[in-house]
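Let us practice reading a record.
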Amino acid sequence: MAADEQQQAGAGRDTVPAGFQRVPTGLGFTDVLQPLYRSLEGDRVRFGLRVIEAHANIMGICHGGVLATLADITAATGVNHARGERAGNPTISLSLDFIGAGRLGDWLEATVMQVDVKRRFGFCSGLIEGSSGVVARFNGTIYLPDHAGIWKRERPAADLLSDPPGE
């Protein structure tokens, strides 16, 4: 590959697409995905990250656990966004089909494609896409309790639906 082709292939490797904001740290396990970004535009919920060494497995591709965590966060946030709620709700079921690979440096974007909210459960499906197409598809079922009893500690000031500090 010529030097100018290499430069073009690497161009944009450190950029974040327009419309994404950094997710604050201090939200528990979510921090393993940092730097993590999200975009809430209308009813569209998206999360994204650039695959770095901390996200990669021994083969140099994004670890399935990172993809599962990204899908889980996207699914729960999608359901809560559809409800107009800021909440932390437990995932009852999450299924993933790993279809492609997210390589080091790739921008991966998880998007909620469909949400259906019932009385005590939210159902959603979505895709995780990278530069070479679909990396994974997911389906999630989120429990929507009618009480605050699931919280075992103080709720954080920030969450995945709130605006990052300084916004």
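A brief commentary: The helical segments are 3-10, 64-83.
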